[in-house]
Structure formats: C-alpha cells, structure tokens
Write a structure and sequence with these properties.
Elements lengths: L1 H31 L4 H26 L3 H26 L2 E2 L2 H21 L4 E2 L1 H24 L1 H13 L4 H37 L3 H13 L1 H12 L3 H26 L2 E2 L2 H22 L4 E2 L1 H21 L1
Antiparallel strand pairs: 1-4, 2-3
Helix pairs in contact: 1-2, 1-7, 2-3, 2-5, 2-7, 2-9, 2-10, 3-8, 3-9, 3-10, 3-11, 3-12, 4-10, 4-11, 5-10, 7-8, 9-10
C-alpha cells in the first residue's frame, strides 16, 4: 500500500512538471514563429493546463477504467470552479471582462448540459465524440477570431515582440526538447496515477468513480490551480478566471471527445444524474455570482469553496 501511495504522489509530480515544461516550451516556440500572445493563451496554454486530464482520461479509457476517465473530467470541472476560483477569490476579489461573463461562461453551461444529454443513454459513442471534437474546433475558431479583432491587443503584442530579445537559434532545440520531455512526463505520470488510483480504490473499498471525481480530478487540476493563484496574486484576474473557463470547455470537448473516439465510453448513470448535474450547478452558480458587476468577491469565493467541500463530503459519505 505504501509503495502504491508513493507511485501516486510520483504520478502527480510528473503530471505537474510535465505540464510546466510543455506550456513553457510550447509558448516560446509559438512566440519564435510570431504567434500572438493572446492566441498562445487561448490555445497552447489552455491545452497545456488541460493536458494532465487528457492523458489521464485517455490512459484510463485504454485500461478499461471508464469511471476514472469520465470522473476525472467531471470532477476537474467542479474543482476548477468550486476549489480553484473559490481559493483565488479568497486571495483577492476577481474582476473579469464582461465578454467572458456574457459569452464564455454561458458556453461552459451549454457544453456541460450537452455532455449531460449525450450521456443519458449511458454511453459516449464515437458519434458523440465526433460532435464534441467539431464543437471544440468551432470554439478555437471563435477565440482566434475575437483575438484578431482586438486591435489594441495587437499593438501591445507587436511592441512586446519588437522589444523582446531572445537568442532563437540557441534556444529553439532546447524548447523542442522541453515539449518532448513534458509530453513524456505526462504519459508516465498518467500511467502511475491511474494504476495507483485503481489499486487504492480496490484496497480501501472506494469506487473508481469516487477516486476519479476527487483524488484524480484534484491532482490533474494542479496546473489550473497554480496558474489561477499566481495570476490572482499578480492582479491578472482575467487570466485567473479565463484559465478556468477555457479549461472546463477544453476538458469536455477535447478530452472526452478524443477518449470516446478511441473507443466508446460506458458512463455510470449515477454520475450522470448526480455529478454531471452538480457540474452544471457550479457553472450556473458562477454565472449568477458574476453577472451583476462582473466580479467575484471574497465572500462569494467562500460560497464556492463551501459548496465544493460539501460536495466532497457527500461523495465520501453518500455513495
């Protein structure tokens, strides 16, 4: 049991460092070929912070642990809002751009509701996966379209690229190496985390679904947690909230889309009617709290955190 726990901790560590190396290397490579910072944030960074969930869910699906594959995504989305934004708001009240409240947050609710509907038949088929991937492509196009329309942002980016002095030739190969190592760490870390989580679930008699919704979900949300807390401390509230909103959309559309394309996923109906419903509730609650003045205050962050802790208590006492 001790060895299994050590492998679980090692898996979490490898996921964290893998995501760190992937996002740093990818961001610098993108910058070298003059992709704007905003597009990097909406694509590379969002993918990198969701990469642990992607690798863990795909690995779990390949190993036949569907409850961990789906539970990881659902649990991560709940943790992103309840735990991460709750903690971030307690550090400092979060102000956010009105467009995110009006457009992206409703998208999170709609995507979450779509997942609920697709899973009512207790399966995510390859057709369902195709639908999710197509919507993911449209979401990327939507973000890039608005990024290009922002002329003020463009001017800032051009100025930044002109003043930034980077020895590209010397660092190009190093950053490619970073990306490859990051991907390798994510693959190895995912295997350790899934294998050890399944073993622990069997040993202490907790279902794989609960392990996926809690331990695995929180573990794979570490990059989002670190990014949002650092962004909040640096007064970059848009990044803090945008990271969570983007990650939640990525998790459903990209991760479950890819996993179900590999092979159809059998979904536990208890997770559909309870945990997916709670996932939608958290998204609706966040929109309600932020729609008045586009701000998440400390006491509202406290509400999110209390709701999340209550959910975790329910998982371990009510199932």
């Amino acid at each position: 049991m001790l060895v299994t726990i050590l492998f679980l901790i090692l898996g979490l560590g490898l996921l964290y460092w893998g995501a760190e190396w992937l996002v740093k290397g990818s961001s610098l490579i993108a910058r070298y070929i003059k992709i704007s910072a905003i597009i990097i944030g909406l694509t590379v960074v969002s993918f990198a912070t969701s990469a642990p969930e992607l690798f863990v869910s795909v690995t779990a699906q390949l190993k036949g642990s569907a409850d961990i594959a789906v539970g990881n995504v659902v649990g991560s989305n709940i943790a992103n809002i309840g735990l991460i934004l709750g903690l971030a708001a307690l550090v400092s009240s979060l102000k956010i751009h009105g467009r995110t409240v009006k457009n992206e947050l409703p998208m999170v609710i709609m995507v979450s509701a779509l997942l609920f509907i697709l899973c009512i038949d207790k399966q995510l088929s390859r057709l369902d996966g195709t639908i999710l991937i197509i919507l993911f492509g449209l979401f990327l196009y939507y973000n890039i379209y608005f990024a290009r329309k922002d002329r003020e942002e463009k001017k800032e980016i051009e100025k930044e690229l002109e003043t930034e002095k980077i020895d590209r030739k010397k660092r190009w190969l190093w950053n490619i190496f970073r990306v490859l190592i990051g991907l390798a760490l994510l693959v190895i870390g995912s295997k350790f985390l899934v294998d050890s989580s399944v073993e622990i679930a069997k040993t202490i008699g907790i279902s794989e679904m609960v392990i996926g919704l809690t331990l695995v979900a929180i573990g794979t949300s570490i990059p989002e947690l670190a990014t949002s807390l650092v962004a909040t401390i640096k007064k970059e509230q848009d990044i803090s909230v945008g990271n969570v909103v983007g990650s939640n959309i990525f998790n459903i559309l990209l991760i479950l889309g890819v996993a179900s394309l590999i092979s159809p996923i059998d979904v536990n109906f208890k997770m559909v009617r309870v945990d997916m419903a709670i996932m939608i509730f958290f998204a609706v609650l966040l929109l309600y709290l932020m729609r008045r003045n586009y701000q998440l205050s400390r006491w509202e962050g406290g509400i999110l955190l209390v709701c999340y802790v209550s959910y975790i208590i329910y998982l371990f006492t009510g199932k």
